[in-house]
Design brief:
By secondary structure, the chain is α/β, with parallel strands linked by helices. It has helices at residues 2-32, 44-57, 59-62, 76-82, 94-104, 144-156, 192-195, 206-211, 216-219, 245-254, 257-267, and strands spanning 37-42, 65-70, 88-93, 108-116, 120-122, 137-141, 161-162, 175-177, 183-187, 201-204, 222-223, 232-238, 272-273.
Length: 275
């Protein structure tokens, strides 16, 4: 009986160890093995579309096999990358990643800038930002970095005034002048396009705007400036995998001139290649 119990415990331990090994294998084997599949988590638009362009047009000649795993939120791509279920992800900018690492205890690294999606203010009720009425409701992304980013967009266009030094970490508490007495409604970023039916205006992340059929370059009431903008989206991997050969290759492919031309042609200024 004791021997059987001992064997059972050993078998269970080996089984758990095997599960742990297989879970981290996506990060290691896929990043290093010549024939391994690189699993990349991405939002469908534009990240998934850009990755599909690379997969179909550039990856085969470079000896890469890509598997694209799509997510509609900003949390699970990082959670699953940290857990080893993905090799890399492509959906976020560096300020969001820094905040996520600090708040969630993850250890993920930004390795290759690819493109910028300018944040914009949209409305189905007005056609000019100056037409925002007193007491109007404005929806904003509720994650820390994009909330501050959206408030800065409003401040840069004279809608509100922020406390000196608030910068991109601003919250509603940093608004020192709100002449229109706007009411801010923080929402999950993915919900913002749908909120246009219920609010007077919404600041929407570029990827969700495009996915909802909006055209940032022509339909945004105000659009984020690109010069000196820190919110470039790029490829992210777990710490320690920055120099894995396949990761380096994928980073170079995402920055290839053919990818930049694809972005310019397909998105017509709504998504801008990183320089």
């Amino acid at each position: 009986m004791k021997i059987h119990r001992f064997v059972g415990v050993v078998a269970l331990a080996l089984s758990l160890a095997a599960c742990g090994t297989s879970q981290s294998a996506t990060n290691t084997a896929a990043a290093e093995g010549a024939d391994a599949v690189i699993k990349v988590g991405a939002n469908p638009v534009p990240h998934g579309e850009i990755l599909n362009f690379v997969k179909q047009n550039l990856a085969p000649a470079a000896g890469l096999k890509l598997e694209i795993v799509e997510f509609t939120d900003y949390v699970q791509p990082n959670v699953q990358l940290q857990e080893g279920q993905l090799t890399a992800n492509f959906f976020q900018h560096r300020p969001y990643l820094d905040d996520f690492n600090a708040s969630k205890g993850t250890d993920l690294v930004f390795v290759a800038p690819v493109h910028l999606e300018p944040l914009g203010l949209y409305s189905k009720k007005i056609t000019n930002v100056t037409a925002l009425a007193t007491g109007a409701t404005v929806a904003l992304p509720n994650d820390a970095t994009n909330l501050g980013r959206s408030l800065k967009l409003l401040a840069d266009n004279g809608v509100i005034k922020l406390k000196d030094g608030a910068g991109t970490a601003a919250t509603e508490r940093d608004v020192v002048d709100n002449p229109r007495k706007l009411e801010f409604k923080p929402l999950e970023a993915a919900q913002l396009p749908r909120s246009l039916e219920d609010v007077d205006a919404a600041v929407i992340n570029g990827n969700y705007a495009i996915e909802a059929g909006l055209k940032p370059a022509t339909q945004a009431l105000v659009l984020e400036k690109t010069e000196g903008n820190p919110y470039v989206n790029g490829l992210v991997v777990p710490a320690g995998h920055e120099k894995d050969p396949n990761i380096v290759t994928l980073g170079k492919l995402l920055q290839d001139q053919k990818v930049k031309d694809f972005i310019k042609q397909k998105y017509e200024g709504s998504v801008i290649p990183a320089e």
